[in-house]
Design brief:
The complex is a heterodimer of chains A (about 525) and B (about 300).
Chain A lengths: L42 H6 L18 H18 L9 H10 L11 H5 L8 H16 L5 H5 L6 H10 L8 H5 L6 H15 L8 H11 L7 H19 L14 E4 L3 H5 L1 H13 L4 E2 L13 H4 L1 H18 L3 E4 L3 H9 L13 E3 H11 L13 E3 L13 H10 L3 E2 L25 H9 L1 H10 L10 E4 L3 H13 L2 H5 L1 E4 L1 H7 L15
Parallel strand pairs in A: 1-2, 1-3, 3-4, 5-6, 5-7, 7-8
Chain B lengths: L1 H27 L19 H4 L18 H14 L1 H6 L1 H33 L4 H31 L1 H5 L3 H23 L5 H12 L8 H16 L7 H13 L9 H11 L18 H5 L11
Helix pairs in contact in B: 1-10, 5-6, 5-9, 6-8, 8-10
Classes of the chains: A mainly alpha (about 525), B mainly alpha (about 300).
The complex binds iron/sulfur cluster (2 copies).
One iron/sulfur cluster binds next to helix 8 and helix 9 of chain A.
Chain lengths: ~525, ~300
């Protein structure tokens, strides 16, 4: 089936897959990079799960084995959809869902804003409104039961393939909300993708393992999605303290569980494992600035992740409450979120109308605080240490969804003489391609798909930002101050061999700050250790 | 016949108002939703409005006064309402047809307002020539622009493959309805009521309940179509003409923080005690019935007793 001929109701057809993006369909990259062939999904997986959408399988929907199971699967989905439109079961998002269902003009203004739609060569399946329109037609016909719905709203057949494909399709979107930003009406197709994810998780018990079993469940069970217990996390950070004290020549110790400290800093615990330099940099800066701060070893409070934001309101609320409870127990004045975009939005914005009165310790982003520290004169900097081309990636959760734009730029301008913006940027940025949980998915060919498709626009923005400084002779730095974005950008740099060919590396913002600190040995950022 | 049309008009206006109110009340009666704002937020003040920043850019933002600029909000709203700025910026080919359509409707609404004013003037025996002069200008312009826009939109929906896939019977029907209704309005203007005196008399009759007989069948047919179209609008996606207010102000720009807001706290207390019936194993089956119970229960840390 070609992308041109895809109609809404094709989703219900009994075909092997709905659509596929071939290499020749992909949006060209600026530096004429050749794409290799993607891996196929292994047969085992196809036998077990409903991999009926395209050549990727994210959600692992168990394949119904009989007509009865097929019907049960559809019925469960419809039951879940009804709950999505219930004031009690979905009070959190009902207003947004209803207004998007009822007011979209189907004008397709939002399509071109979507990096996936563009990167896929405008494959209809990736159009922001495609999955929404399927959802809407099912809703109007089977839940709202509008008279003459097929005629009024367009035809939709409902069978298990429709539902399975719709579920998978909810995971062909980064929930970056760039499409919503361009909608003249204010409708939100990203929200619909998330609502579909919620029906699958909250009603049908189906969610990608990285987000659920290995993600939020681990977070609630051991305290971290990394499965690090508090003791392991403390040991690791102690090791980081020692290691980096030696390396940087700046002696520091990360404080834990300081009762009554001003600030509870919460990191994405993935940083402890993958980017210890980020943990060390925060500690160095906070110590050098003389802040009263602490980490917490309470359950979930040493890991800011809250994957519920991506797929499940209940898991979201449980995690947010644990974070807030830890702050209350320590009696801190505020929670500061370290470099993790979704954690920023989860605890600062979404939890704002979820947390009950007793748990409302104020929450803020690390970026304004870091900007104030840099500008305060408390720490001496030598910006010439950062005299290499630097560009800044804006995590959607921090910029488009929270409006935190300028503090990062103030730091860049103060400390990075060769700072250059990507285009577009700020609230109009493009998602890195790892948003809404993809960055932590490496299963089967998901990594390939992320590198080629979801991150395509971002890698092309990065290349364009450095177009005046090509080649491996000049070291370049992509500042991506968010754990998930960093994971995605790391994978793309590897995939496109950007370190070897172009000497492009990546990291957070605190690494750049420490790299410019006079009291720290030069060379905190090191291109050889990528 | 005239009496029948007067009756239909009253009913049509009542249906329109009731349907609009019903939608608005339903929205207002929804439980409070979580914050889901999207930047740039129109009412941000100062330079933040320019680059899409927010009060969250400040350290200890909850201790600082929050500046909300209604002027900045208007600076976003006016070009959006009057110029369809988002479509102009992000979907220029569509703007060329949807803009005349919307502009036509704006002129038509203005025309109706002036006719109503003119009718009041007629009832009160006040001269209203300048008002009627504006009505004479805005009416035909509105009808013709709407027809041009609707024909353009219809053409786009039929010929543009991308739009066609997402178009259904209702889109075509709605556009045809506008073309026919406005077409009748143009014919009435051209051949029956060039100075809109009949229209003014009809509306004055509606207002004063003195239902003067109108002899022109074309005029009456035009009224029936106009009223039916107006009554029909709030039942379609065109309800966005008033729901957009909530989509923008309550959702997209709904950034009010829950700091020192006892009203919000009280509302949160209510929703946290709502029952929850989602069936997945991590939610159901722990004998927790409300959101508060489910959210404060950690099924992983507290394995259930046998
Ligand atoms: S979501 Fe908005 S931009 Fe997209 S088709 Fe609907 S009305 Fe148009
Ligand atoms: S949220 Fe982002 S990825 Fe999803 S449809 Fe919209 S623009 Fe595309």
């Amino acid at each position: 089936m070609t992308k041109k001929s895809l109609e809404i109701n094709d989703v219900s057809k009994n075909t092997a897959i709905l659509s596929k993006v071939n290499n020749e369909d992909l949006m060209p990259l600026p530096w004429s990079i050749e794409e290799g062939e993607s891996k196929d999904i292994v047969q085992d997986l196809k036998d077990k799960y409903a991999c009926d959408l395209d050549d990727v399988c994210v959600l692992n929907i168990p394949k119904p084995q009989s007509k009865e199971e097929e019907q049960e699967f559809v019925d469960k989905f419809i039951t879940g959809m009804k709950k999505s439109f219930s004031k009690t079961d979905n009070w959190t998002f009902l207003s947004m869902l209803e207004t998007t269902m009822e007011n979209c003009a189907k004008c397709n203004t939002c399509s071109d804003a979507c990096h996936l739609y563009e990167a896929s060569g405008q494959n209809e399946m990736y159009r922001p409104t495609y999955r929404t329109e399927i959802f809407r037609r099912i809703y109007k016909k089977f839940v709202k039961k509008e008279a003459l719905s097929d005629l009024r709203n367009g035809k939709i057949d409902l069978n298990w393939k429709t539902v399975a494909r719709l579920g998978e399709m909810a995971y062909r979107c980064n929930i970056c909300r760039r499409c919503a930003q361009t909608c003249p009406i204010g409708a939100d197709n990203a929200l619909v993708a998330r609502e579909i994810r919620k029906i699958f998780s909250q009603e049908m018990g189906i969610a990608p393992p990285e987000l659920h079993e290995k993600g939020s469940v681990n977070q609630l069970r051991t305290g971290s999605s990394t499965q690090m217990t508090a003791m392991v996390a403390k040991d690791n950070v102690e090791f980081i303290d020692e290691d980096f004290s030696e390396e940087t020549g700046y002696d520091f110790k990360t404080p834990w569980d300081v009762q009554g400290a001003d600030i509870l800093l919460i990191h994405n615990a993935g940083e402890i494992m993958a980017w210890p330099d980020n943990i060390a940099a925060f500690s160095i800066i906070f110590e050098a600035a003389g802040l009263s701060w602490t980490l917490s070893s309470e359950i979930a409070a040493y890991d800011s992740i809250n994957y519920g934001v991506f797929y499940d309101d209940v898991q979201f609320a449980r995690t947010a409450i644990l974070h807030a409870q830890a702050a209350k127990n320590l009696g801190v004045k505020k929670i500061v979120l370290a470099e993790c975009g979704h954690a920023h939005k989860a605890l600062t914005v979404i939890a704002d109308r979820v947390l009950p009165e007793g748990l409302k310790t104020p929450r803020e982003s690390c970026f304004p605080l870091l900007r104030d520290i840099v500008n305060s004169g408390k720490i001496k900097f030598d910006p010439s240490r950062n005299n290499f081309p630097v560009t800044l990636h804006d995590p959607c959760n921090v910029t488009r969804l929270m409006g935190i734009i300028k503090p990062q730029r103030d730091i860049m301008k103060a400390l990075c003489p060769q700072f250059r913006e990507m285009v577009p940027n700020g609230p109009h940025n493009y998602c890195c391609g790892g948003g809404s949980g993809f960055a932590i998915m490496h299963r089967n060919n998901i990594g390939d798909w992320r590198n080629k498709l979801t991150g395509r626009k971002k890698i092309s923005q990065i290349l364009n930002a450095f177009s005046d400084t090509r080649g491996p002779e000049t070291e370049k730095y992509v500042c991506a101050p968010c754990s998930n974005c960093k994971g995605q950008i790391r994978d793309m740099i590897e995939h496109y061999e950007m370190l070897d060919k172009e000497k492009i590396t990546y990291g957070g913002i605190v690494e750049l700050i420490v790299n410019a600190m006079v009291d720290v040995n030069p060379g905190f950022i090191n291109w050889e250790e990528f | 016949m005239s009496l029948f049309v007067y009756l239909i008009t009253y009913i049509g206006i009542i249906i329109f108002c009731a349907a609009v109110l019903k939608r608005i009340i339903a929205y207002i009666n929804n439980p409070p939703h979580v914050r889901w704002e999207l930047y740039p937020v129109g009412h941000e003040s100062g330079e933040r409005a320019e680059y899409g920043g927010s009060y969250l850019e400040d350290v200890d933002w909850w201790k600082k006064p929050r500046h909300v600029s209604r002027i900045n909000e208007l600076k976003v709203m006016i070009p959006e309402i009057l110029g369809l700025k988002a479509v102009h910026e992000y979907n220029r080919p569509l703007w060329f047809v949807t803009y005349p359509f919307h502009l036509g409707l704006y002129f038509t609404i203005m025309f109706m307002v002036f006719i109503v004013i003119g009718s009041f003037a007629q009832i009160l025996d006040i001269p209203a020539a300048p008002i009627m002069a504006i009505a004479k200008f805005t009416g035909p312009l509105g009808f013709i622009l709407t027809i041009c826009g609707a024909v353009g939109l219809l053409y786009k929906r039929i010929t543009d493959q991308n739009l066609k896939i997402h178009s259904c019977f209702e889109h075509y029907f709605n556009l045809m309805l506008f073309i026919v209704t406005m077409g009748l309005a143009v014919l009435t203007w051209l051949f029956v009521d060039p100075d809109f005196l009949m229209a003014k008399t009809f509306v004055a009759g509606l207002i004063s309940f003195k239902l003067t007989a109108i002899s022109s069948p074309l005029f009456l047919l035009q009224i029936v179509f106009m009223v039916a179209t107006i009554a029909y609008i709030p039942f379609t996606h065109m309800s966005h003409f008033f729901m957009k207010y909530f989509l923008y102000h309550d959702i997209r720009w709904g950034d009010e923080p829950n700091i020192n807001t006892p009203k919000t706290d009280a509302k949160i207390n209510v929703v946290l005690n709502y029952p929850i019936t989602w069936s997945a194993p991590h939610i159901a089956g722990h004998n927790k019935k409300t959101w508060a119970e489910v959210a404060t229960f950690n099924p992983e840390a507290e394995p259930e007793k046998e």
